[in-house]
Structures are given as C-alpha cells and as structure tokens.
C-alpha cells in the first residue's frame, strides 16, 4: 500500500512538472542560479584561502651573520630560536650556498658576476632563515634577536620579508567579495521563493478540477498535497544536479587560469570539489530541498483550500 501510494505520488509529481514544462524550466533556472552563487562563494573562499596561505608561506626572517662568526656560534643561535614555541622552522644556509644563490640570482648581470670572481674570499656570512607558526609572531622573533646581547653581537644584518600588508589586503578583498556574493545569493533566493510559490499556485489552478474530484472520492489532504511537495523536491534535485555539473565544468575550465594566478599548479578547483563533494553539494541539495518544500508549503496553505 505504501509503495503504491509512493508510486502515485511520483507519477502525479512528474505530471505536474511536465504539464507546465516552461514554468518548470524557469523555476529550475532560478534554483540553479541560487545554488551556483553559493558554489561561486565556495570557489572564491578556496582560491583566496590558497592565495593567503601561499603568501604566508613566503614570510620569513633572514638572519645574516658576520663572516668571522663560527658555525658553533650560529648553531647555538639556531638551537635557541628552535626552542621558541612560536617558531616553526629554522633553516641554516652556509656562506657557500649563499654565494651560489647570489650567482644564480644575478646570472644575467655580468658586471656583478665579474666582481664576485675578482674577490679572493667569500664576502658573505652564514645565514639562518626563520619561519614562524603565525605571521603575528614574527615581531616576537625580531624582538628576541634584537634584545638578546649574545645574538646581537654575532648578527651582521636582518631582513624581514613582511607580507602582512598583502595578506591583510587579500583578507579584506575576500570579505568584500563574500559579502557581495551573499547579497547575490539572497537576491536569487528571494526570486526563487516567489517563482516556486507562483509555480505551485498555477499548478493548483491547473489541477483544480482534479483536486475537486479527489476530494469527492475521499482522498486525504496528504494525498492531495503530496504531488505538489514532490514537484518542489524535483525542482531541488534537478537544480542541484545541474549545479554540480556546471560547477565541475567551470572548475575544469578555470583550473589553468587559477594555477597561473597563484603561480603554481598544485591547487585545483576540480580536486577541491572532489575532496569536498558531499560537504558542498550534499549541503546544497539538502538546503534547497528544505527551501523548496517550505516555499511550497506556504503556497499550499495560501492557495489550496482542502
């Protein structure tokens, strides 16, 4: 009996859907626009998060030691910095490695290369490259280096590659884009409510004679309302499926451009979607289903008198 009722519900829901096919197409289009605006926010959040993480990974402090400082003294400073709980990594770069890096950096400048060849000894000192766990901790490291006398006398110079300004700008831009995205999503959501309610109202009007006959033969209110709720669920399911297909299409087309924007090919929107498939599209499907059913319930309570 339950299976029979369910099959009838699905049958009548499909009849409602195809009887007003163009109105159904318009409704699904609005659903797709609403869901894809949410998916776009997910894309933006992922790209901005990767960009901010990339900039943060390039923040470090290079500590240049005087050429006369011994390796033992440098390793003592390295051990002291590694003991700080806000230091992530301290990398030692020898003076030979530093000189080779300098030669590679100025490979297109013969004048500098010739000057280096003329030198009898390596003018560079050893270096420690310090990476903090958080960007806010770099100032603490600088304070330690400046405020510890046994460190300060060994250090020739320090360079703090501070990208906090860029990070703050990216975070601000990300917030502004998200705000604009949510405004667009809310706009489409309001339109979706109005379109779904109007679609169900027209469906009720189209089936008014059938509804009257159902009531005459003793059909329950649930049986009468069921096909309209089924139609609403159908809008959500089809809309979510089309949004998923569109999202993967956009992700695959955008991946080369995103890789170029970020400066590396390790990040992929398509891979991100694969790793968060149910979290993204499952949530969208559940949310839109509840949204459609709620809108339909409002329409039924207002226009269906049974």
Automatic annotation (TrEMBL):
Domain of life where this protein originates: Bacteria
Keywords for the protein's UniProt record, in alphabetical order: Cell cycle, Cell division, Cell membrane, Membrane, Transmembrane, Transmembrane helix
Pfam families referenced in this protein's UniProt entry, alphabetically: FtsX (PF02687), FtsX_ECD (PF18075)
Signal peptide: none
All residue ranges annotated as the FtsX extracellular domain in the record: 59-149
Domain ABC3 transporter permease C-terminal per the UniProt entry, residue ranges: 183-305
Predominant location category: membrane
Membrane protein topology class: Multi-pass membrane protein
GO cellular component terms, A-Z: plasma membrane
InterPro entries: ABC3_permease_C, FtsX, FtsX_ECD
Biological process, per Gene Ontology: cell division
Location relative to the cell: Cell membrane
Membrane-spanning residues: 21-48, 182-204, 232-251, 285-304
Annotated PANTHER family: CELL DIVISION PROTEIN FTSX
Family recorded in the similarity comment: Belongs to the ABC-4 integral membrane protein family. FtsX subfamily.
Protein name: Cell division protein FtsX
Organism of this sequence: Candidatus Komeilibacteria bacterium RIFCSPLOWO2_02_FULL_48_11
Lineage: Bacteria, Candidatus Komeiliibacteriota
